[in-house]
């Protein structure tokens, strides 16, 4: 009997020694070289590497933004590298880390979180060359669009050097513009370019350098076809050609042109006049019994461009009269009053000027004719709701003011135009919109809008579309308005997690966050922003509404290290065996277990066994037979707390 007992003791001792020897042969994995941030270009590839120590083989699991993207199982190598696909601009905010396991079982090592720290700047849209005509008032504008990681520093250069420096912290576009009043021919051939830089300094696997220089944008300026200048006498219009003009017996004549800033002049005359003044004077002895004719010429230089030559002859003319005076007029607000009077000068018919004046009325605004024009071409606007009238007076004028004929008058009544407004509804794809107009008596709709009443129309566009409505009032005047029917397609209900924050990917909507409980979605009071920070780990969803469209995201697992997480030093759960096997018992040492969920690395619930109560309702047997080995997440709800743990099934 004693021999049998002694033999049993020896066998147990040998088994214990062998077990300790086997365990000592598996060294837990540890990280000797962490992955580092990468600095790369688009397109390109980033390379994240990790080096570990411990007993091989190793299991490497690479994650991007918390999602498993690559794995290497049973690797004998202590070094593992994840090579990204070809990079795009959106990848600049990605984060990466690696989870490593080996034969040590529950020992799981997670690397530091790293990312792409800066993508170098590159130009996607170059500044464009532009063409202008000298003399026009115009805005000369150049823009550049870039790719890369902001902020960007833009240095614009022109013919005289640096002209503008800007820092862009969010967008990817810079504009340099200036207003030329006017554009001059001397700008022809000027070039502009921009130098852009950002945080990139040429490290990593991308191309070197931290700045790019755009192409030169060239300004081309051409001269317009400049007409011969108008020539005046004593401040009154004479001619632009070889026409005769009355001086009404005046012996002192002032030649001039309309004042244009920047113009230079060259006058000459058959009487010996030679002047660079805008308004030179000359003495002419002209009498009714002296048919002497004098010829005067003028050229103008403006904005670096020279006009053709204007000339005229002066002779004596009689006082003008007006034939066929205009009748009273009625127009709609915003309409044009166009009058060209007929001038008959005694026995002569020739060029004349017309002097217009009109009364004022506080309810009429708009462009009105100035004195000394060659006709009336006024745009009149009635700012009231009833008809308003003004009176025009016309005088025919030859040469100086002394050659002025009798005046004639006529009245202009301006009827008000309707102030048409129209709604712009938002609908879901496949719905019918009701468009309502207001402000007129009758309405006419453009194609696609079907009238449904006096002031309404129905439209069912497949995509966002605009419709025009023309309203007419009782005065026969009309006006238009534009309705835009916005059509919404499928809402973006995806939810992304950054750090400890969940965010809906649908912008410009209204939001309501929900907790995915066992008995359905539970509304979270006050959680109505686009972002939500959960107070505990769990599954959450968001309802998104935009216009009349409503959709709800799928439930998504929220898992945060350090947020209501139990650590190894604060164990409430007993898991046996650990790592998980096909049959694993989970026991709460403090509270009764009410539910258990097993999630995969994508956050999807793969197992929710009903509690088979053991040990007074604190123990549950989890059957994971048929599941692939790897990393899972365990969520245990007790009467007092929600516990989330990362587990390994092997």
Model description:
This protein is mainly beta and 650 residues long. The chain has seven domains: 86 residues, Sandwich (Immunoglobulin-like); 101 residues, Immunoglobulins (Immunoglobulin-like, Sandwich), CATH 2.60.40.10; 84 residues, Immunoglobulin-like (Sandwich); 95 residues, Immunoglobulins (Immunoglobulin-like), CATH 2.60.40.10; 68 residues, Immunoglobulin-like, CATH 2.60.40.10; 64 residues, Immunoglobulin-like; 77 residues, Immunoglobulin-like. The protein is 4% helix and 48% strand. The strands form 15 sheets. Strands 10, 12, 13, 15, 16 and 17 form a six-stranded mixed sheet that branches. Strands 3, 4, 6, 7 and 8 form a five-stranded antiparallel sheet that branches. A hairpin with a 4-residue loop joins β40 and β41. The protein is elongated, with a radius of gyration of 44 Å. The two termini are 43 Å apart. The relative contact order is 0.07. The N terminus is likely disordered.
Protein traits:
single chain; 650 residues; mainly beta; Immunoglobulin-like; 7 domains; 5-stranded antiparallel beta sheet; 1 helix; 58 strands
